[in-house]
């Protein structure tokens, strides 16, 4: 009777415990406490929320370990942190710090334009962004234990999160209708590992938990994403760039639980103060879009 | 028979799937009215602080306590924290079972583990009763049990990870993440 650690079941299992919940970006231990008190299932510890990264420009890197450790000391819920795409040393540092999940994230400046991190080599789990089924299955093939839509972070515009969620679920619906002999060509066109395409087809959904992220700013946005079929939501800039973060955070948590109940959604959406200002994705130059980072 | 699965947050669908495979009618419970007509309730894994806060905000704490007085309730992981009397910290608890738990007793995710456990009580639903593959994810430990509580499973180091008090059941691990339905059948037997 020996215990096993770091297995894929355990990595994927933690994401299963986060389902139906909200993961919030926090930049200070005080934010982390507000998020926990509001009912967040986990926090993402980072130095700047995506809206500020977007505004500041420059290179965005892994956060200072000191900040991450302080946040880990402050809350009892899981703490996630971001590493740059392909930057496996940042990920090793986060693993050594003991964070509960690494987000290999397009919100940070990519360290590698060709290759993502080989996530099988780690004992801690990874979440990665995806815009479609092929991208999601490539990340799972590399060892990701959780997927999130990329959306367009730091905008407060939910349009890209919707596009990516519809695309992932649409791809899966299409896959389910194919005769089996057409699956290989489908996998080739997707650029996805055949075995994972077959597994997805058998399950009728991704083989790992699938959250929405990138542009969610209101309880209604969160409920919309749940209605499209995701398992939970990440809210980045949408909370701490709003007028009343504690109230908005608690409202989004309630909206994700009662996402089908428009009456409750109406109740929780009342008097939340100013939402984050936001920026229309369609007004952002192509070269500044974060979702295009990674492949 | 109809079983409720508390669906405020967490892996309630995993419980639902196993119950459905056992041909049991289920209901997702989000509001107190959902408890009407149920024969038992499962509180799933998830984040106990989130589930507790939502239960408070939507007025479920007292209805859940009243329900537990004459119905079977089973908590897995976060659920076992919520039904405990004491979790060594301030957070909303249902205080149904006379157990004291230590939340995140094993550490962080990197310390999560899988292990086979001998669980003699499962003989009731399984003649051969092979070891049960238990999955512990940032799991709580049952630190102490009251006199009326029966210990069902221990780790090799003697720490308690499953317990039963009359019609209430607590497991630190996640039978719903496996394909082994013995714990679910054991819970159904408790109700029958």
Number of strands of chain B: 12
Low-pLDDT windows of residues of chain B: none
Structurally, the number of domains of chain B stands at: 1
The shape of chain B, in one word, is: globular
**CATH superfamily caption of chain B:** Class I glutamine amidotransferase (GATase) domain
Count of DSSP-assigned helices of chain A: 13
Percentage beta strand of chain B: 25-35%
Q: Return the average pLDDT of chain B rounded to an integer.
A: 97
What overall form of chain A do the CA principal axes indicate?
Answer: globular
Order of the strands making up the biggest sheet of chain A: 8-7-6-5-4-3-2-9
Quickly give the CATH architecture of chain B.
3-Layer(aba) Sandwich
Mean pLDDT of chain A: 96
What is the end-to-end distance of chain A?
42 Å
Helix content, binned percent of chain B: 10-25%
The H/E string of chain A reads: EHEHEHHEHEEHEHHHEHEHHH
Intertermini distance of chain B: 9 Å
Helix content of chain A: 40-55%
List the chains of the largest interface with their residue counts.
A-B, 43 and 41 residues
Radius of gyration of chain A: 18 Å
Along the chain, the helix and strand elements of chain B come as EHEEHHEHEEEEEEEEH
Largest sheet of chain B: 7 strands, mixed
Task: Put the structure in a nutshell.
Chain A is α/β, with parallel strands linked by helices and 295 residues long. Chain A has helices spanning 8-18, 29-38, 50-56, 65-74, 88-97, 133-141, 159-177, 183-190, 194-203, 219-228, 237-240, 245-257, 262-268; strands at 4-5, 22-26, 42-45, 79-84, 101-105, 126-130, 146-149, 209-211, 233-235.
């Amino acid at each position: 009777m020996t215990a096993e650690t770091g297995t894929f079941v355990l990595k994927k299992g933690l994401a299963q415990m986060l389902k139906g919940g909200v993961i919030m970006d926090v930049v200070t231990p005080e934010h982390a406490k507000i998020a926990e008190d509001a009912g967040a299932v986990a926090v993402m510890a980072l130095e700047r929320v995506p809206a500020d990264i977007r505004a500041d420009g420059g290179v965005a890197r892994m956060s200072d370990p000191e900040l991450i450790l302080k946040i880990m000391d402050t809350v009892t819920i899981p703490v996630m942190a971001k590493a740059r795409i392909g930057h496996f040393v940042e990920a090793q540092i986060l693993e050594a710090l003991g964070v509960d999940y690494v987000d290999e994230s397009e919100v940070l400046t990519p360290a590698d334009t060709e290759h993502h991190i080989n996530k099988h080599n780690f004992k801690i789990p990874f979440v990665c962004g995806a815009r479609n089924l092929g991208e999601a299955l490539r990340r799972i093939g590399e060892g990701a234990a959780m997927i999130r839509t990329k959306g367009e972070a730091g905008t407060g515009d939910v349009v890209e999160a919707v596009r990516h969620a519809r695309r992932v679920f649409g791809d899966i619906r299409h896959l389910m209708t194919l005769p089996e002999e057409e699956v290989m060509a489908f996998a080739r066109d997707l650029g996805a590992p055949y075995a994972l395409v077959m597994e997805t087809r058998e399950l009728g959904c991704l083989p790992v938990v699938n959250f929405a992220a990138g542009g969610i700013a209101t309880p209604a946005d969160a409920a919309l994403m749940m209605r499209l079929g995701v398992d939970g939501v990440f809210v980045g800039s949408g909370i701490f760039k709003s007028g009343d973060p504690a109230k908005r955070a608690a409202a989004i948590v309630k909206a994700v639980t009662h996402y089908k109940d428009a009456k409750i959604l109406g109740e929780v959406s009342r008097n939340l103060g100013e939402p984050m200002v936001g920026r229309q994705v369609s007004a952002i130059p192509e070269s500044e879009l974060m979702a295009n980072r990674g492949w | 028979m109809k079983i409720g699965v508390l669906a405020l947050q967490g892996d309630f669908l995993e419980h639902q799937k196993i119950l459905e495979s056992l041909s049991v009618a289920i209901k997702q419970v989000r509001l107190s009215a959902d408890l009407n007509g149920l024969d038992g309730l499962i509180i799933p894994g998830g984040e106990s602080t989130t589930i507790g806060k939502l239960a408070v905000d939507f007025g479920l704490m007292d209805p859940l306590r009243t329900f537990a007085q004459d119905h079977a309730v089973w908590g897995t992981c976060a659920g076992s924290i919520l039904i405990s009397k004491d979790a060594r910290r301030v957070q909303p608890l249902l205080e149904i079972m006379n157990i004291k738990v230590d939340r995140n007793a094993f550490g962080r995710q990197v310390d999560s583990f899988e292990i086979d456990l001998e669980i003699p009580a499962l003989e009731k639903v399984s003649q051969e009763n092979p070891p049960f593959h238990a999955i512990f994810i940032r799991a709580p430990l049952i630190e102490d049990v009251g006199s009326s509580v029966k210990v069902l499973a221990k780790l090799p180091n003697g720490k308690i990870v499953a317990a039963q008090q009359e019609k209430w059941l607590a497991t630190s691990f996640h039978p719903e993440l496996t394909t082994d339905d013995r714990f679910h059948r054991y819970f159904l037997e408790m109700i029958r």
